[in-house]
């Protein structure tokens, strides 16, 4: 079912063909390095570079006998080279190639993910600027709290995605390392210069230290960062889902021509893509847990991590790439109902100005406790009897003994909720 979420450029990276090609690229890079230090004859290198190839079908055929996919690959490649094949994989262990090639694939996948992050950030930036001066109700605990800028929703997500880009970039950089150091990682049969030269050829850094494998804390970091980005996608998706509820209807996923929301109810327009993203984020978190468990291997290595990584690394990168692409589409085409935003702002009949009223009463000389008591008793009447809050408080003599009518009018003005928006936008680098 993961194929449903595959986009072609990411699918290619995790295809068998590309994996084998990366393995071959690593083997050839090592051969070049061995030639550079005078170990592998030039004629053999020329033969290897010009002839080395593989066949997925032949590898599968050999693996039926060997029960070892890398040996099957190596056997097939050696068949294509002839006697020069004796130098391929000389002094190496399978993980030298597999782990180094995996780093190459993760780097390639990471570049695609960062590209999608950039697209999402641009979409969030544009929508944040579009709604910068649109006043909306802010909610805490799901309950109307105070007015705020509708654009701040997008600005907040933009800022978080900037951090996510930094996180994933750092994680990719950390794991863009190669290992050509042999069975126990101690260079017993390999000159350390081979690793240095081969990694430079492959665009990788030599890992500082390894056993038979590159240590899995690096992979766990990458998958954990992917899960964190997934949690941001979920955060955005849940906000949109809440705002699309019929009773709220401040936004709506774009409903395309011919789309249907329900097999039973033709009127339905559901936030289906946001719900999908919410669900997929759970898979990313589960995969992160598996990646963390992969870090604890027996002694210099065991094989318990390998089977897991064949699932969680392709799946996590594929899913996040898809989720980012879908979220960019959602944000770009998100339908925003400004009339409903304005309507919802008035829904509590002015109760949302209770805090500024509390502050003004306190500043007039009342204790905070007394001021709170006055404001709350009026607020409860407003809520229960649906009386306009401003009209109600002007009938409270104890309150009016401390504030004049001009001050009351100023309290119910909404200018204060947008006056520092430019300051916030500047802090996060969102300027017109």
The gist of it:
This protein has two domains: 12-78 and 87-254 and 266-340, Fumarase C, Chain A, domain 2 (Up-down Bundle), CATH 1.20.200; 351-411, Fumarase/aspartase (C-terminal domain) (Ribonucleotide Reductase Protein R1, domain 1, Orthogonal Bundle). Helices cover 63% and strands 5% of the residues. The protein has helices spanning 8-13, 16-36, 42-51, 56-66, 69-81, 94-130, 151-175, 192-202, 217-243, 272-293, 304-333, 338-345, 354-363, 368-385, 389-393, 397-400, 405-411, 421-427; strands spanning 135-140, 143-149, 177-178, 205-206, 251-252, 335-336.
Question: What would your notes on this structure say?
Answer:
The protein has 18 helices and six strands. The model has no long low-confidence stretch (mean pLDDT 94). The chain is mainly alpha-helical. Strand 1 (135-140) and strand 2 (143-149) form a beta hairpin. Helix 4 (56-66) packs across helix 5 (69-81), helix 6 (94-130) runs parallel beside helix 11 (304-333) and helix 7 packs antiparallel against helix 9 (217-243). It has two domains: 12-78 and 87-254 and 266-340, Fumarase C, Chain A, domain 2; 351-411, Fumarase/aspartase (C-terminal domain) (Ribonucleotide Reductase Protein R1, domain 1).
């Amino acid at each position: 079912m993961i194929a449903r979420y595959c986009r072609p450029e990411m699918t290619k990276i995790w295809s068998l063909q590309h994996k084998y090609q990366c393995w071959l690229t690593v083997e050839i890079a090592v051969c070049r390095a061995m030639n550079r230090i005078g170990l592998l004859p030039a004629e053999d290198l020329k033969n290897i570079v010009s002839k080395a190839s593989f066949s997925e079908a032949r590898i599968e055929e050999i693996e039926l006998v060997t029960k070892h996919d890398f040996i099957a690959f190596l056997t097939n490649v050696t068949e294509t080279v002839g006697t020069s094949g004796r130098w391929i994989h000389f002094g190496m262990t399978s993980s030298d190639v597999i782990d180094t090639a995996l780093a190459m694939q993760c780097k390639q996948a990471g570049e695609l993910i960062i590209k999608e992050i950039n697209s999402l950030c641009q979409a969030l930036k544009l929508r944040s600027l579009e709604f910068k001066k649109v006043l909306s109700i802010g909610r805490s605990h799901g309950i109307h709290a105070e007015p705020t800028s509708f654009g701040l929703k997008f600005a907040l997500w933009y800022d978080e995605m900037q951090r996510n880009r930094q996180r994933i970039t750092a994680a990719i950089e950390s794991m863009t390392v190669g290992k050509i150091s042999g069975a126990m990682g101690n260079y017993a049969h390999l000159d350390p210069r081979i690793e240095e030269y081969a990694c430079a050829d492959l665009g990788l850094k030599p890992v500082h230290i390894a056993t038979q494998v590159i240590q899995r804390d690096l992979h766990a970091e990458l998958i954990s960062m992917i899960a964190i980005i997934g949690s941001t996608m979920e955060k955005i998706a849940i906000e949109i889902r809440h705002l699309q509820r019929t009773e709220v209807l401040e936004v709506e996923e774009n409903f395309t021509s011919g789309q249907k929301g329900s097999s039973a109810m033709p009127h339905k327009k559901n936030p289906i893509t946001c719900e999908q993203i919410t669900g997929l984020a759970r898979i990313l978190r589960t995969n992160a847990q598996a990646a963390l468990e992969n870090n604890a291997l027996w002694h210099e290595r065991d094989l318990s991590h390998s089977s897991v990584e064949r699932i969680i690394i392709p799946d996590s990168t594929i899913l996040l790439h898809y989720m980012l692409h879908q979220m960019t589409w959602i944000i770009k085409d998100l339908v925003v109902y400004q009339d409903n935003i304005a309507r919802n702002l008035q829904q509590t009949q002015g109760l949302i100005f209770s805090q500024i009223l509390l502050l003004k009463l306190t500043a007039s000389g009342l204790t905070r406790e007394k001021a709170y008591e006055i404001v709350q008793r009026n607020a409860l009447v407003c809520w229960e009897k649906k009386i306009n809050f401003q009209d109600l408080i002007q009938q409270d003599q104890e309150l009016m003994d401390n504030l004049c009518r001009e001050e009351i009018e100023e309290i119910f003005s909404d200018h204060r909720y947008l006056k520092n928006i430019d300051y916030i936008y500047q802090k996060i680098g969102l300027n017109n």
